């Protein structure tokens, strides 16, 4: 049954955020998808909660994958990407880090970023 769950998770990644735990899992997500928005967040962060519906919509309605990284559980990973405050969204295109957006931004801004790499 666990194998089916893993297969379902892989199939669902295009439509919902992928919760990442560790560098190797993030590397896999970045390798497997052309455009990835990585949302570095914390459960206690009010602005992060405001951003959550935006990143969920981006995951559901665009070709980009969205990964979520809890900075409290993954401090080394956040540090590796220079995340000093949350929310921070790091954008990858074709396996390379291309942009970093700090703070809460609107859905239109994230769609424009995704569109600039997918068109």
UniProtKB/TrEMBL annotation:
The record marks 39 as: Deprotonates C-terminal active site Cys. Transmembrane segments: none annotated. GO terms for cellular component: cytoplasm. The keyword Oxidoreductase does not apply. Pfam families: Thioredoxin. InterPro entries: Thioredoxin (IPR005746), Thioredoxin-like_sf (IPR036249), Thioredoxin_CS (IPR017937), Thioredoxin_domain (IPR013766). The record marks 46-47 as: Contributes to redox potential value. The keyword Translocase does not apply. GO terms for molecular function: protein-disulfide reductase activity. Residues 1-119 form the Thioredoxin domain. It comes from the Archaea. Disulfide bonds join 45-48. The active site is at 45 (nucleophile), 48 (nucleophile). CDD domains: TRX_family. SUPFAM superfamilies: Thioredoxin-like (SSF52833). NCBIfam families: thioredoxin. This is Thioredoxin. It comes from Halobacterium jilantaiense.
């Amino acid at each position: 049954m666990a194998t089916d769950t893993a297969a379902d998770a892989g199939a669902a990644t295009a439509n919902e955020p992928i919760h990442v735990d560790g560098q190797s899992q993030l590397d896999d997500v970045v390798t497997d998808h052309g455009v990835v928005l990585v949302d570095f967040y914390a459960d206690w962060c009010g602005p992060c909660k405001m951003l959550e519906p935006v990143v969920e919509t981006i995951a559901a309605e665009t070709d980009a994958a969205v990964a979520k990284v809890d900075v409290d559980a993954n401090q080394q990973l956040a540090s590796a990407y220079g995340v000093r405050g949350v929310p921070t969204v790091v954008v990858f295109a074709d396996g390379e880090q291309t942009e970093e957006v700090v703070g809460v931004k609107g859905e239109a801004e994230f769609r424009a970023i995704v569109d600039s790499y997918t068109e």
